[in-house]
Amino acid sequence: MVTTPVDLDYKQHPNNYKLAHIPGTKGLPLIGNVLPFIKDMLADSRNRVERFGEVSRFVIADQTGLLVVGADNYKTIMLDRESNFSAEMGYAQQLGAFYRGGLLLLDFDEHRMQRRIMQQAFKFTTMKHYMDPLNERFDHHLLRWPKDTEIKFYYEIKKVLLDIGSRIFLGEDEFNQDAELVNHAFADVSGGLGSVLRFNLIGTKFYRGLKGKATLADYVARKIPDRRAGDGEDVLSHMCRERNEYGEFFSDKEITQHTTFLLFAAHDTTTSVLSHMVMYLGTRPEYQERLRQECLALNTDELDYTDLDKLPEFERCFEEVMRLHPPVPMSMRRTIRETELGGHKVPPNTLLFMPTCYNQRDPQYWTNPDEFDPSRFDEPRNEHKNHSYCYHPFGGGAHKCIGMHFALMLSKCFIFHLLRNYKVTTPPGYSPTLDWVPIPKPADGVPITLTALEN
Fold it and tell me: Rounded CA gap, 121 and 406, in Å?
């Protein structure tokens, strides 16, 4: 095993821009290649692969690096057997502006040590405690959603998941007092993350995003003393009581950084996944009915933790939605020393832009890759096993998402309550335009109508 390169002062080096030996384009002045990329990340990635291959020179605003796709390349980068790729430096100018210190933005020994802070909160014995509040809150909200009239699903589920997050992540029984404050803070941070030109000037999205970040951090910091002294089963309580390798509590700063990033990662990504899933269920009534019958076959009003493995049809649907619409549309890394990717020598300190969507629709591994077809994850097809890195919606290697099982559990619980009680319909011929950044979603908010089922 290669030792972590602690002797290298890689964080102090500026980004490398000397990439003329690798084919690619500069794009437009000031903004580079950003416009076609954020308009349709998949189409632009495919176009660049056709013109330049799996590795190409790429510019987004003030950042020059390489666009990298290909399952073999991702295996090299994500497994990182030679400790040659820094997540912290890759994300420094994007997520780092808002979530510096979050688990995804740490490297090597520091990442391994800090990962301990969240492990207890996502263990099997702890996750079982989350089922009761999930069942209760989903049932509560769905009863109150308007019926037989059109609603915008994306915005409704976003509010529900904020409530869920306040209970399961923060241990709040009631969220009314601060709901608007935190809602605005999340919206401002999301807007800031989507800013192409990042100038901290009053009135800009980036400025509002930084203000939102400070609001969230202050909110979490105020909760830490009570959570550390209590015996709560929420995520924040577990993190506050966790100790490092020296037997000491993690600092308030560390807990705040991890919690604000976790709230963002869990809230926005699950909103994206469920929005796309409901989009497909609404446009495929026969498939919706198959999932409904699977839920009804459990013969229960509430989903128990032991029931989670009894929904294989849903699980294939979830995997297919994650394949077609990964909620984290792009991963980032920066090289630490010279390496080789796609047949090119890549210098140290080179930024790598890694659009997740390309590999997950690569016809080399997937049949009819743009079609919604959950059966591709079933025996005997198992297309996700054609390469260990043709399917990676939760990342891979040391940085694989620690909350992936929670995301699946939450999604199963919501869809269970939705389908066993309501029929979901979308407008005739519904085929929305998709937004790609900062979090992928149907641009129109997914208009649906809920019709109560007869018992």
Answer: 10
